[in-house]
Fold this protein.
Amino acid sequence: MNKNEQPVRIAQITCGAEYSGIQNEITSAAETVGAKMFYPDVVLKDVKRAYKDFGLPVKSPDLKLAIARAEAIVEGRIEADGIFIASCFRCAEAAIVRNELRRYIIENSKIPVVSYSFNERTGASTLLTRLEALSTIAKRRSLMAREVQVGTTMGVDSGSSTTKCIIMRDNEIIGTGWRPTTDVLKSADDVIDLALKEADLKISDIEATATTGYGRFLVGKHLKADLIQEELTVNSKGAVYLANAQKGFATVIDIGGMDNKAISVNDGIPGSFTMGGICAGASGRFLEMTAKRLDVDITELGPLSMESEGGENVPMNSYCIVFGTQSLVNALAAGYKRADVAAAACHSVAQQVYEQQLQEVDIKEPVIMVGGSALIQGLVRAMGRMLRTEVVVPHHAQYIGAVGGALISSGFVDKKEKSKEA
Amino acid sequence: MKPYVPQYVGTVTKYVFVDSPDTTPQDIATAAYEIAQGVMIKETCFGCQITGLPEDVKRIVDHLRLLDPFRIFIKDRGFPPGDSRRCRADLGGARPGYLGHEYEMGLVRYFSHGLKETDGMTKQALKKAAGNELPVEEPLDAEILEKLFSEEE
Amino acid sequence: MAKVFIYPATSLILSDLVERFGHEPLGSAISIREHVQTPGFDSPPIQMTSEDPQKGLKWAAVEVPSGVRGRMSLYGPLVEQAEAAIIIDEPDFAFGCMGCARTNELLVFMLREKDMPRLELRYPATKEEGVTFVAKIKQFLKDLEVKHE
């Protein structure tokens, strides 16, 4: 962060953070991304009134306080750039409040909000990406508002499973590169070479670069990137851009190799989002394991799963990557077809993402699926059935972070042009 | 993780609250300063906070109570005064405990009245007063509910 | 002098009355003070770390939310020390350490379970009830003196 820049002020509306021993993790994560957490200041009178107005008869006083704090922000009595709502994992009372407050804030204000449930093991690193995204949405609205790519720009997405590169020129994709992530920097260099070759360009032709994904800091430093940005905002930008859904509402779902993201977008700007990453059984990794078990390449898992009606009849005893895979093996032994088993794996991942994450954002159409897993048709079908909607998968969906990066970084081309003119 | 070296180890901090037409928070703080003898006193909007060794703090609060015994209330505090971890200026808002005090201070006239009235009571009078009902509200008994419903019908 | 657990553990009036009538109040401030005055790893604001919810496992199982277990690690040791308890029913507006209804339910249960003198009452709503409130507490604390002699 620039030293003269004002920190982004994020209102903390939480219950149990101090007593779970993680308050310092929240504060530190916020500081790392140039934000400052603060408690919206309310008095007892506000709490009593807000509790009555809101109408949710909770018992915990700190949840009543949470309601009052949210109301003070929504009514404009307290200013905030972003809101972080969080409560203890496994607390039903708090989960209800968290959900309803999130909805209330989104419906009644334009302030970005992220909601999360923590336990004592939640560390600053887990919170970092979420607070970084929240801070970006608040701080860089103009960058987020970009709808057209200009100049020659590059986006590199250093993901946990794969590394991707996209080169764009004048609003068109002209180069692509894709490799499994092995050595973070080498994989990045490889995909850049591939993309440059396809685009028939040299690295010196690139006017601006953005990096995203798990390796964004390392790769960003290596490339001297103009923008190093977490994947929540970058992917959602890329998704609405490619799906031509930059106006109005949209929901972006990205089932990644290590975590999943569900982002609710309004006019191209992410509003609320969730990011899960606790269980491999709800990730692309589960589908990779299934492909291995079925002895097919991951690219063949999609067509194979589509040969089945949906695989809902295959008995799955567990969502877990270990025991869930075992269920699939048992199903094969019991005589189920390979196609049904492939579809059952897709159904299991979709169901888990639906149960654990999509409840935390308001699903509004169009629903756009991105990331490598969006190419597995069985998964897209399962998600569509779950949400009762036709899911949109844009072209280049597997490159989404890199596309978003190339798009957003063109904001720096304008700046560079201006400084040249000056 | 950064190591933590605590300050004021071995001390206690007490809040002194006053809600009285005769004694102001400033009166309390001034009286505390007069006998502080090096003990840390911090004036606040509701009275003061005193931080020091337990016996020193006790000496001061015992003296302060005498100034307006039914309208001064004293409570332990975990933090030393002005600690940035709890300070409103640093957190952007009051620590949650403040609102709890606000709630009880809203009832303080009842406590003051109770203290005054019970002060001179004989053993028997106190026992009698203590015997009055101040029941915890019980939810309606299922049988009573049933009876109410049947009466309505 | 008896150690009297006060509930709400953050209560100004209970802390005051217990000490005023010659006993030792056990409440949140005592545990928080211990955390704040103990060296270790820096974990502001109240110096609770992920170890505290782990310590709380003594009083609540792992499926209980971390915030409940963390709070129980503050109260559990105090309940063990307590020789008597005063409980004000339904502390609707006691926040922070007392801000979680689930913790409060467990805490009240533990206080009721323990074989010790206990007074349960509610906040006064009139001046007359103020007299009853103070009288009950005063009488309860006087009776404790007799037991301790």
About this structure: The longest helix of chain C spans residues 127-148. The beta strands of chain C are 3-7, 24-26, 40-41, 84-88, 118-121.
